[in-house]
Design a protein that fits this description.
about 0% strand, 2 domains, mainly alpha, about 350 residues
């Protein structure tokens, strides 16, 4: 069996499923649903029907995009990879409903689980028969869609329950949950896992989504400013608009460099929830909550939520106070707080010159 699994490149490991596959799923989600939402919002704001239509097409393909991205990360053969498009569509549709038939937030999580299952089943039978072109797609699709029909609604229910609990708890205790959500999601952003996928899988929106945005921005902008003396403008852009994950190697060597941006997120989180009541109501769901300033997706998601709220009549208008709060939470406070907290850390010798240098 070990030889068979090795020959088929089937590896049961937390890294392959929890890091490689999860990260790829977030990329697939970004290239479909999130991009679609951004394009659609632009189309609505500038009255360009073509962009609205393109955005709709992108969003509709989120399930297949996520599944194919997962298949790519799992190094599946071509026939398995192409068959995963059907699996992703089914899993996303079935996972987006709860057992009671109500809309749910478990589509991305269902796609992750079902695409992994279908991909490994497809890899197991790939090129084992003379009619591979029939057997491999059939096994991949039937395994994935069949399992989705049985399990995906339950996944949708579970994911929605977790997300609903976090959102409810944040409303009840905005200060404590503002700290918790901001710190945890921000740490997940910097770790080699996907905070965007986690937020999307649990449908982390509303006030909790606002705290998540604050935490992610604190990590990205914070590390960009904290490491400016070592990495200059290139580091500022690559971390501030790219990802704070670039610092992961340095964090392993000296975990204390993580203190300033993490403390900054613990401050900006409750400010977002208690003072500004910042909410993430992006129509794309929770994916933008876990993106931070990566491509400015987090702030764009907040803005898309404002536009949607105004269109739905929930919000009267987008005000100057809204823009000021967004700028403070996403850019100004993370930069200033991380820089200030970093000063005593450097004086105490916790952070030394070169500790934040990117290779």
């Amino acid at each position: 069996m070990k030889e068979f699994l090795k020959r088929k490149n089937i590896v049961f490991s937390a890294k392959r499923y929890g890091i490689d596959a999860l990260g790829a799923m977030a990329q697939g989600l970004f290239c479909s649903l999130l991009i679609g939402t951004i394009v659609k919002t632009l189309g609505q704001q500038f009255s360009i029907p073509f962009l609205v239509e393109v955005g709709g097409y992108c969003s509709a393909m989120s399930g297949p995009a996520m599944a194919c991205a997962i298949g790519y990360a799992l190094q599946t053969p071509p026939l398995v990879l192409f068959s995963l498009a059907t699996v992703g569509y089914a899993a996303n549709a079935l996972g987006s409903t709860t057992l009671s038939g109500n809309p749910g937030a478990g589509g991305p999580l269902a796609v992750l689980v079902m695409a992994i299952l279908a991909a490994e089943c497809g890899k197991a039978v790939s090129k084992e028969t003379k009619v591979d072109i029939l057997v491999t797609p059939l096994v991949t699709i039937l395994a994935g869609v069949g399992a989705s029909a049985l399990v995906a609604p339950a996944i949708g229910t579970a994911a929605s329950s977790v997300g609903d609990f976090v959102k409810w708890a944040t409303i009840q205790q905005p200060f404590l949950m503002g700290i918790l959500v901001s710190v945890v999601v921000g740490i997940a952003l910097t770790l080699p896992i996907s905070s965007a996928a986690i937020c999307a899988a649990t449908g982390l929106t509303g006030l909790a989504g606002g705290a998540a945005v604050a935490g992610c921005c604190a990590q990205m902008v914070g590390f960009a400013v904290l490491s400016f003396r070592e990495n200059r403008w290139g580091g500022l852009v690559s971390q501030g608009l790219g990802t704070s994950m670039l610092q992961m190697g340095n964090i392993v060597r000296n975990p204390k460099i993580w203190i300033p941006p993490t403390l900054a997120s613990a401050i900006t989180g409750p400010i977002a929830t208690c003072l500004f009541r910042l909410q993430m109501n992006d129509p794309a769901g929770g994916v933008a909550s876990g993106m931070g300033t990566c491509g400015m997706v987090g702030p764009i998601g907040v803005y898309a939520g404002w536009v949607n709220d105004v269109a739905m009549g929930v919000k009267d208008a987008i005000t100057a106070a809204d823009w000021a709060a967004l700028l403070l939470i996403c850019i100004v406070l993370p930069a200033v707080l991380t820089w200030l907290i970093g000063i005593p850390c450097r004086k105490l010798g916790w952070i030394k010159d070169g500790d934040l240098k990117l290779d």
